[in-house]
Amino acid sequence: MQAEIISVGTELLLGQIVDTNAAYLSRVLSSLGIDLYHRTTVGDNETRIAEAVRVAFETSDIVITIGGLGPTQDDLTKETVAKTLDIELLFDAEAAERIRGFFESRKLPMAESNLKQAVRPAVGRTIPNPVGTAPGAIFEKDGKSVICLPGPPVELIPMVTETVSPYLRDKRGPTAEIIKSRVLRTAGIGESAMEQMVKDLLQSGNPTVAPLVGRGEAQLRITAKASSEEIADVMIAEVETKLKERLGSYIYGVDDETLEQVVVRALIERGLTIGLAESCTGGLIADRITNVPGSSAAFLAGVTSYSNKSKTELLGVSEDILKEYGAVSGPAAEAMAQGARRAAGADIGIGVTGVAGPGGGTPQKPIGLVYIALSRKEDAHPAAERTYSQEFKFSGDRRNIKQRASQAALIMLRNELL
Amino acid sequence: MQAEIISVGTELLLGQIVDTNAAYLSRVLSSLGIDLYHRTTVGDNETRIAEAVRVAFETSDIVITIGGLGPTQDDLTKETVAKTLDIELLFDAEAAERIRGFFESRKLPMAESNLKQAVRPAVGRTIPNPVGTAPGAIFEKDGKSVICLPGPPVELIPMVTETVSPYLRDKRGPTAEIIKSRVLRTAGIGESAMEQMVKDLLQSGNPTVAPLVGRGEAQLRITAKASSEEIADVMIAEVETKLKERLGSYIYGVDDETLEQVVVRALIERGLTIGLAESCTGGLIADRITNVPGSSAAFLAGVTSYSNKSKTELLGVSEDILKEYGAVSGPAAEAMAQGARRAAGADIGIGVTGVAGPGGGTPQKPIGLVYIALSRKEDAHPAAERTYSQEFKFSGDRRNIKQRASQAALIMLRNELL
Questions:
Q1: What is this structure's pTM?
Q2: Does an H or E element contain B209, and which?
Q3: Residues on chain B touching A183 (C-beta within 8 angstroms)
Q4: Angle between helices B398-417 and B259-269 (to 10 degrees)
């Protein structure tokens, strides 16, 4: 079973909105095992919508259009699909009632043009819209379907969940092939180096194993086609085991799991707490850690010490260190990590200092130079502590450097906890 | 002049990434007055890439492909375009040198497969990649061009800015019609309320004025078509003046300007410094402020005080306040703001405390309840200070609540500085 998605909207072609709907629907189709080989975007233009629908309908079993269902003159999709497939549109009294009710319940005046939305295909069905005024439509012809959905994601998503997914599952039948993917996420290794380590395991058969690039970390995606989720899971697990043997602790998580989730979980499991001292990352590490629900069990406090005064007063970094080595130095990072640990009353402290740019770089301390330190109370000797630091050189703009430094700090913390 | 964009990548068709590149390039084309009637997405499949390029090249003057330039077997775009257009690919010694240098400077081992990227079209040119290893390429044939760009936005954007935009501007020539847009960004007003205030100024002619919904703040977009940038600017300025009269200080910035940029600029202009005390926002406000280049002139220090101990010890919030009102309360927020100001030695302190969820909510203090306070030294009486707080109730998940609270804090700061 093969599908095509057609996104309709001049605002898409002007780049004024990013098409998250197409990505969402792509995921839905792939989880249902429906192949998607093409996506197309056209503007609010009858000729081009018609042509896109005609071509897609020729080659696919399912065509899904997104957008162009509103009440304005620009909204042409349903009418154009009806003409292209030669299926009549009927006035839908029930939908008209619902649109009137929508405005009444919000005490808003209704323009008559809104009733233009109250139509349904003579062959096919309506897709109720629980959130907005524009109902969707499914046109049926020659065993194929054209499904029309509205553009706002807040309307489209419930319509897909409640009506389109069950419809497609039904149409697909119980025996079709499904596609399942699993992404392995790594830390502490570059993309090429990872690829070298698993080169012979990369494959384009079934399952496929492929590197994903440009995500700020090296990732591998395993994708299996199978007749059921269970079989796909087994196929994926088999390859995953081999990849994990090869990549070992470089793999920190799967799918949407983030490094900060893994680190927070590891801290909580070990009953350890943490404090942060951030200079060049400017609070980003604290932000990432506190994005994790329940992180308050492990994260006690952070200090974003931009000024030298805050480094000495809030973190107890000695002025001698700042004078002798400078604020961007290994000793300063280590003193910050110790200060973070003590100020927060935590088991572990992290200190990060560097030059995020675009100003502030010198030949000795160029933009992208970052020192990250970790300080930990020794379990065996509670009075003793262990502190170490590492030098990094990151490239990119200010936000890239902040992001990479925060990633490196979380990796250092993860390695400490392994 | 007409263009088409072809996004290449199986991960796009599986919905694993959202195609922000296509939107970005669409904006670039529209700003250059180059028409874009279609966008297409295909997977990493030679036949389908070739077919998409063939069709696009027939109907368009400019075809831009995104993705598939990496070193892996899946990366087929340049080779496929070369075959489709019957243009040879030559080994590019300079590009090879640059790729070697990229790995050397990072002290990473280089896989030989990376040199696969070091090719350039026999007819056309290379697009230098200042950030990554994969150079882009422009193939030229019959007065038309196929432009190949890599998928990672961090590489694509500088390549477009530095090479592709000037190339297209040159090719377009001086006389075409251009489209120009300007987005007005507001703070402190909802989308419906904004729309009500400017209802009669919304228009679909030239220029168009339309609200942009679902962006986390109320925005208006003005779009003008004209024969030159200058004329478009005048047309936009005319409507903008009217909108600004209507919306007044609700408008804080335009286009890509962020609230944090506006706030940092206002602080620097007034010679004021700031310190932060963040509880539920967890460092996000510090992160946003420190994303702004030059923010170190205004931002001195922040404390992310998750534990009560850090509130009392680092910020000097009295235990009485925490006991009597609780950590999530107006008095606690005010004490935090005062503590932030003093701890940082700053002119202004901001304190934020609340329940970000998903745990920790109670009937008295539900998830989404947030108190934000501001404390400022009185200019007239340096020893005196003025502190005030406000209660908010935000909806959404943990990250939404953090985001909305950080936005509200920046708005409070902006209003204080106006």
A1: 0.81
A2: strand B208-212
A3: 16
A4: 30
